[in-house]
Amino acid sequence: MATAAAHRTTAEAQAGEAERTAAYEAAFDAAVAADERIEPRDWMPDAYRASLVRQMAQHAHSEIIGMQPEANWITRAPSLRRKAILMAKVQDEAGHGLYLYSAAETLGTGREELLDKLHSGRQKYSSIFNYPTLTWADVGAIGWLVDGAAITNQVPLCRCSYGPYARAMVRICKEESFHQRQGYELLLHLSKGTPEQHAMAQDAVDRWWWPSLMMFGPPDDESAHSAQSMAWKIKRHSNDELRQRFVDIAVPQAEALGLTLPDPDLRWNEERGQYDFGAIDWDEFWNVLKGNGPCNEQRISQRRTAHEEGAWVREAASAYAAKHGKAAA
Ligand code: BYC
Q1: Average pLDDT, stretch 210-238?
Q2: pTM score
Q3: Is the CB of 124 under 6 A from ligand 1?
């Protein structure tokens, strides 16, 4: 008797739990359908939470790893003005990383854990930062193309269904716009400068163009997460849609800069009202993701060193917080 009653109670409890979950799920689906924001304390499917942490962590990691290629030129900037601008930009990127790690923390994933996953290769960062910055013109090409691609990808993220991510993106996009313009202005000066400067600008664009197109991720038919992320309104557009949008913006800008894009198949398609462009080398993309790009090893080892060398700062901040009765950072 007692056992049957216990079974009944367990079954009833399970049915009650399932009913509650179904109600939560219906409320979540309705909020997404109505374009309302999901906030940290709201119920959300485990897979939604996991996918957001995955994307936001990758995004945060990209921001802080992305400081390295440009920081490489701070000491060699050609003027005080250029040095001050570049330092401000690299600092902004550290700030973007912090907004994004904080936003990821609202989902219950600590910064230490995310950094550990980055340092041990269990989480990715953008493929673009595994390419070297060989000349000063690369700073301009990164600003124009890499930040330009980033804005194209990130403006729709301001309407992401998860509130803290969407709000972080508003400020990030404003700062990215400034970054893009400084890159464009730098390249314009070089392009209109001496023949050597023009050649340096052209060489940088030749090297950064294709990797910039890869930033948008694999083609739609190979994108593992796009369909679900779009259904959840984390992503608002597919990888290929955003890549096309970027090409359509970049072509007239290249013309205004007096530089060419390294793609013989690039031409206006009257029927589509968009530019056709050549085939992307996806083998190169997947190879870079596997860790075999020109700078993967260097980027991660420099990041690990920076983290180790910063240990005393974290310890000091924790000691200060403990002394003043605040929660340790
Ligand atoms: N590089 O199913 P998919 C910046 C991965 S920061 C490396 O299409 P999803 C800046 C993808 O994670 C730029 N990995 O994925 C900073 C997935 O692997 P997992 C970073 C890539 O998430 C400083 C697999 O491939 N921006 O701009 O639907 C200075 C399959 O892909 C890449 C962001 O992170 C890549 N390029 O779409 C200047 C923006 N592409 O997770 C500039 C936010 C794909 O299954 N992120 N993968 O192991 C996004 O919008 C999306 O995550 C992506 C990919 C469009 C990147």
Answers
A1: 97
A2: 0.94
A3: yes
